[in-house]
Every structure is written in structure tokens, then in C-alpha cells.
Write the C-alpha cells for this entry.
Amino acid sequence: MTPEQKALVKDSWAKVLPIQETAADLFYNRLFSEYPEVKPYFKGDMKEQGSKLMAMLNTAVIGLDNLEALIAPLKASGKAHKGYGVKAEDYDKVGASFLWTLEQGLGEAFTPEVKEAWSVTYTTVASVMIDGAEY
């Protein structure tokens, strides 16, 4: 990740934080409508799940300048997700739904450069989680 991409992710995330509850709702609605096969992975309160998602994303964004510190928690999260039944190929579904959510939430601020920066960020996070799951 380039310093410019990190800055784009941080700046755009600052715009998502005020609407994080709406963003979480948009994300899960999109994920479940486009990929209904993943809905059984989610058994709890979806508002709580959305809060956890936003907190995890916030931690990842804050940690962009110290990626080494994120590796162990992300691997542990990947292992936990495998325990819920999540498969390696499900990460692409989540990524697509997440980028769509950012596009909806950011509007014109979701430039091709912002999209690329988030794509790199998500791909990095997902690959570490998949590695932690040891598929």
C-alpha cells in the first residue's frame, strides 16, 4: 500500500464514521441480497454485528501505519470465521458488498483512486484472515 492509498482510506473512512450504522445496514442488506448463501453464518443480533464490523474496520484503518500489529488479530479473526463456516471464496463476496457500500455512502467522493485504495486494503486484510484460517 502506498502512503497515498493509506491517506485516501483514512480520509474516506472519516466520512463513513458519522454514518456507520447506516453503512452497516447497507452492507448486510447488500451482502444478503446478492449472496443469500452467506446469511446462515450470521446468527446473532445484526445491529450488534454491524457495530462489531464497524469497530473492526476502524481498528484496521487506524492500524494502516503499523500493519505488523494487525497480523495476529486478523489471523485469529480468520480462524474464528472459519469456525462459523466461512469459506475462502466468501471473502470476495464480502469485498464486493463492502465496496458497493462505500460507493453508496461516499457518493462522488468514491473516486476510482479511493476504490483502488480500499480494494488494496480489503485484499490485504482478507488474505491475512484467509491465511489465519488455514484453508
About this structure: The mean pLDDT is 94. The domain at 3-133 is CATH 1.10.490.10 (Globin-like).
